[in-house]
């Protein structure tokens, strides 16, 4: 099918070049625009089960995934870049308290929100990443600024926030990221682990007086890292991931999401990947780059490559989580070894697919 398209384009280019004197770069552009855009995203993987999800929450997550994937699709449909699409969709999910990214991020054991993000551009293999930021409203935009406006690939902590402010990115009080749901979830976990309960963060709204019933939703989901991979009409792919990390993390812990090649990777030579799950395992297996290497050097189909790493290699070391992936030829894939993964995908001319549980595969 791809070969047929390529021959078709080549014949068209030859006819155009011989009949009218069209500049070679115009012919190239016509070739490039043959790509159909596509986007795949995730909103975290984990023990996400039908029986423990209320109808309302199920509907809320599906609507949020739909909104985010639509935002990316709108960018791509207008001929926008995969990088712009990735950033647009992730910003929406960072603003949505349902997800463990930006507002609604999980808390560290010390009661703070420390945010990580990364972005990578497949065309040039430029990348930007940040870890442990506490004041930048959109960590994904900061990762992009690191890539585009600094000579570096990765920045951490207060320095990264300072750099964000210097590039004009919106700064917020750390309490902006607070949500009651994540706070109660932290307290529950700390009690279980017999760890000290930190004071309620300064600037957080007063504790609800009506008990847990007031906290929407009452269940304690700690998942919700977000990631997007996209292919634009020029045939360029990109990947981005944003997270609050793992709940009750300590000592400045950083997971896989901002580690290029582990939680995030993109190269036009192979594929773009964003991962979610317990980052310690994803770092050790350099999951994202390993998947793309299987595509590039072993000629594997994208779905076979993601399954190989997630269902075999990751499982073998007891790693839990999943990935989404896209290739420049339009292949889209996802794979997870947890009960569920919030996810959505769409390709130009096809309906949007939104799924949550394992049995929807
Ligand atoms: N991968 C993220 C981390 O380890 C967490 C997640 O995806 O749920 O920081």
Descriptive labels:
10 helices, Glutamine Phosphoribosylpyrophosphate, subunit 1, domain 1, binds aspartic acid, alpha+beta, four-stranded antiparallel β-sheet, 12 strands
What do these coordinates show?
It is a single chain. Residues 7-32 have low confidence and may be disordered. The longest helix is centred in the first third of the chain and has 23 residues, at 55-77. A hairpin with a 5-residue loop joins strand 9 and strand 10 (332-336). Strands 4-3-2-6-5-1-11-12 form an eight-stranded mixed sheet. It has a four-stranded antiparallel sheet with strand order 7-8-9-10. Helix 9 packs across helix 10 (302-316). The protein has helices at residues 2-19, 24-32, 55-77, 82-95, 139-149, 157-166, 180-192, 279-284, 287-298, 302-316, and strands at 38-46, 115-121, 126-133, 154-156, 226-231, 237-243, 264-266, 272-277, 321-326, 332-336, 340-347, 353-357. It folds into two domains: 1-34; 36-360, (Glycosyl)asparaginase (Glutamine Phosphoribosylpyrophosphate, subunit 1, domain 1, 4-Layer Sandwich), CATH 3.60.20. It is an alpha+beta fold and 361 residues long. Aspartic acid binds at residues 44, 223, 225, 243, 245-246, 255-257, 263, 276-279.
């Amino acid at each position: 099918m791809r070969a047929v398209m390529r021959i078709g384009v080549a014949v068209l280019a030859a006819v155009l070049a011989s009949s009218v004197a069209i500049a070679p770069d115009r012919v190239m552009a016509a070739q490039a625009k043959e790509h159909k855009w596509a986007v795949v995203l995730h909103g975290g993987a984990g023990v996400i089960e039908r029986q423990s999800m209320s109808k309302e929450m199920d509907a809320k997550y599906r609507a949020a995934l739909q909104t985010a994937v639509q935002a990316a699709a709108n960018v791509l449909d207008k001929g926008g870049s995969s990088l712009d699409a990735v950033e647009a969709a992730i910003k929406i999910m960072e603003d949505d308290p349902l997800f463990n990214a930006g507002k609604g991020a999980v808390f560290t054991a010390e009661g703070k929100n420390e945010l990580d993000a990364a972005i990578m551009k497949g065309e040039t293999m430029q990348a930007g990443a940040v870890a442990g930021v506490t004041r930048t409203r959109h960590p994904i935009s900061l990762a992009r600024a690191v890539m585009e406006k600094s000579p570096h690939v990765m920045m951490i902590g207060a320095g990264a926030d300072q750099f964000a402010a210097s590039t004009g990115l919106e700064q917020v009080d750390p309490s902006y990221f607070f949500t009651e749901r994540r706070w109660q979830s932290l307290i529950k976990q700390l009690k279980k682990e017999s760890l000290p309960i930190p004071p309620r963060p300064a600037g957080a709204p007063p504790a609800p007086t009506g008990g847990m019933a007031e906290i929407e939703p009452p269940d304690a989901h700690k998942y919700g890292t977000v990631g997007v991979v996209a292919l634009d009409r020029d045939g360029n792919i990109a990947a981005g991931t944003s997270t609050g990390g793992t709940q009750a993390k300590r000592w400045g812990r950083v997971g896989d999401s901002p580690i290029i090649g582990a939680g995030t990777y993109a190269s036009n030579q192979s594929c773009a990947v964003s991962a979610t799950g317990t980052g310690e395992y994803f770092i050790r297996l350099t999951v994202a780059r390993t998947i793309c290497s299987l595509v590039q050097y072993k000629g594997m189909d994208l779905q076979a490559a993601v399954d190989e790493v997630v269902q075999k290699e990751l499982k073998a070391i007891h790693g839990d989580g999943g990935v989404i992936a896209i290739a420049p030829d339009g292949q889209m894939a996802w794979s997870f070894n947890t009960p569920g993964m919030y996810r959505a995908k769409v390709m130009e001319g096809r309906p949007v697919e939104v799924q949550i549980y394992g049995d929807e595969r």
